[in-house]
Amino acid sequence: MDKYQQSQKNQLFKTDTHDPYRSQRFEGSAICPQCDSVYHAGNWTWKSPENTVIHDAQTVTCPACRRIDDNMPAGTLTLSGSFLLNHRNEIINLIENTEKKEKADHALERIIKMTDSGDDLIVTTTGIHLASRLGHALEAAYNGDSDYQYGDDEYVLTVSWKRDE
Ligand SMILES: [Zn+2]
């Protein structure tokens, strides 16, 4: 492993352990009663034919459902600008499709909610990776200006995206 890979690995490790909602690690397996995701070997994943039969699984609410219950987003994306007002449905479709793709592979990356705030649209997420991916998807599809601010101590990402006609 070279220095770059090592630092990437440390970064990933750091990111996961920084999430206060994921700090709860435990032995054995679990199933979330709210979304049916499955915890095994330190990871939460969707139920699949390979992990459907889990012996002695505990019932534990997964970090994503806990964030949704608490309304404590890890990622917050704010969209603004007149382009949004004129392409709202198209943009919401892009956001929903991007979530669908991310969520399929990563059970803990979900949208909490989309809220209007004046002319802005605010999208909150259970994971910082989804917030980042949404920002990049908007840029790839529509250009515009975006900004990514990672919290220093907490597991949070604030993304803003803006485009005027
Ligand atoms: Zn859950």
Automatic annotation (TrEMBL):
InterPro entries: BCAM0308-like. This is Uncharacterized protein. It comes from the Bacteria. Residues 1-20 are annotated as: Disordered. Residues 1-14 have a biased composition (Polar residues). It comes from Pseudomonas moorei.
